[in-house]
Structure formats: structure tokens, C-alpha cells
């Protein structure tokens, strides 16, 4: 008989490191609660993860004191009153429905006047398992209880009964119909040491002039705390600490600590260079008139340096200066080409061309370049 072999594939194994973080936290909490006391297990069984709990007041559609109708469970159809909210489970504790759970609690959790360590905890109901029952006024002045299918919270308003801002509860299918919140089960009472509401709202001062101050200047110490740091004037020491220090400069030597100013570059052309350039330009002008014999003597010129003057550019280093003649229309142009020869490459590495006849137009330059692409090269 062929032996069977069990193959354990990784897709059937739940690695705690690869589980979604929220699921991992939930599993850890559930594993921890298995060893927890009974009352913690009961309370945690009705709780939801923290990321699913209601964080806004508008998410709660009911409040303690509301009458609701049960939509699910053994008490379906019954009408009862909400006693409290179970915020850890997004649910409500309804009076006398959905049963209770009995479990012991430690003495530290016992309430005042409690004689036993065993309590009954009602099973909470979700918000989707409840339907609001409201009072509808009739024409004859009486009221009738009606069940509202769904309610929503849109906007906010100040409720004087709760003394705080509450969301406005309206019908889901008709936002114009507002459903009021129930009266608070425990009205806010006056606490010893606090100012009563009517006394705090009583106005005892009116502005009588726009020019004079609303109160005497001598009353300032009684109205505000003169010892508060914000109302103090800065002393000399505080001003010294808040002022950035200045660099130390000895008297009589400010020029030594002045910032260096960038000077414009000076003209590096010497008198000899200018004279040489003038001679070359004069020879070019003479060549235009027709003195070709003098121009032939300029066929091979060795120049060391770098010069640039209005269209005539002479390269740096060992340069060969070549000449050729071009005729465009009725004008005769001389083409001077500079090239740097190389021992390894017989062809020139670079060349610059200059047309020496005043300032020819761009059209004439383009025509001369397109017509005469070849240049005469000389070797050194």
C-alpha cells in the first residue's frame, strides 16, 4: 500500500505577523478575556473594537429617556424606555427587555447601599434593533404615540434643557420635521460654590461713552491680574536678552571688517594687443579695395592669445589663419578662417569664420555660408 503524505500549505496557516493589525488586536483581546473574571467577560462580550465605536454625538440617534420599540429578539414589538447608553458597544440599555445576565463583582465596584456582590446586567440592544416612538400632537390638543421608521441627525442647535449644543434630530425621509430630544432624566442642579444661571446672565454694566474708558483707570488692578507676565513691561535685562548681539568692531577700524565688494573685471588688452589688432583690421580693409598681394602675405599667421573684436575671433593657442574670397551680388567679401591643427588628426578640430567688410546683413551671411562651405587650410 502506498504511504500517504500530508502536505501543510502556508495558505491554511494564520501567521500573527501577517494578519491585519485590527484583526490581530481583536484576537489578542479575545484570548486575554478568556482568563479574565466573569464580569469583564460579560462586559467585553457586548463591546466593539475601538475603531468601530461612535465618536460623534450625531451618530447616536437615541438618548436616555426616549421610548423605543424593539425590532428583534424575544421581546420584539414591545415598547420600553432607554435607561442608558453602552458606549463601548454602540448600543443601549432598555428597561425590562432582552433579559439580563447575573455575575459577581469585586467589592471595589459595589455601589452605595448595595448589599450583595451579585448584580444583574441587562443585555444591550443595537441601534438598528430599535425604533423611536414619539408623541404626535393632534388638532384637538391630545397626543398620539407613533413609531418613526428612521431618524437622522442634521446640524446642531443649543438645547437649554441640557445646557449644551446637541445635534438636530429629524425624520430620515423628511428633514423639515424635527423630532425633539427627551427631557433629561437627571436635571442639572446648582452645585455649591458655582454661580447661579440667572445671576451670571444678569447685566450690570453699560457703555456710556465712546471717548472715555469704560471703567476708571485706577480700577485696572482690581479687574485683571497685574502680576501676570503678559501685562508686564520688559525690563532692561529682558530687552538685552531678547536683542541679538552685534559683532565687536574696534573704533577707528570699520574698513577692516567691511564686507568685500566685487570689483568689475578690468580690460586685459594691452597697448601692444590693440596695436596688433588695429594693424590686422587695416590690412583687411586694404584687401577689400583689391590689394591681394598684401593679403597673400597673411596666408599663414601664427598667433598666440585670445582676441574678439566685432566679428573677428582669434582662437587661443596655436592658430592658423586662412583667407578666401567670396562675391555676393556686387559686393566682394573676404572669408577668414581660423583653425587649430592637430598632429594626430590632419583635419582641423575647430574653426571660426569672420567676414571683414563692415557689418554685412544676416541674409548675406547665410548666402555666403551656404555658397562657400569649403575653406582653404594650411599646415604649420
TrEMBL record:
It holds the Pfam family Ribosomal_uL24m-like. Keywords: Ribonucleoprotein, Ribosomal protein. PANTHER family: MITOCHONDRIAL RIBOSOMAL PROTEIN L24 (PTHR12903). GO terms for molecular function: RNA binding; structural constituent of ribosome. It comes from the Eukaryota. GO terms for biological process: translation. One of its GO terms (cellular component) is ribosome. This is KOW domain-containing protein. Belongs to the universal ribosomal protein uL24 family. SUPFAM superfamilies: Translation proteins SH3-like domain (SSF50104). The keyword Chaperone does not apply. InterPro entries: Rib_uL2_dom2 (IPR014722), Ribosomal_uL24 (IPR003256), Ribosomal_uL24_KOW (IPR041988), Translation_prot_SH3-like_sf (IPR008991).
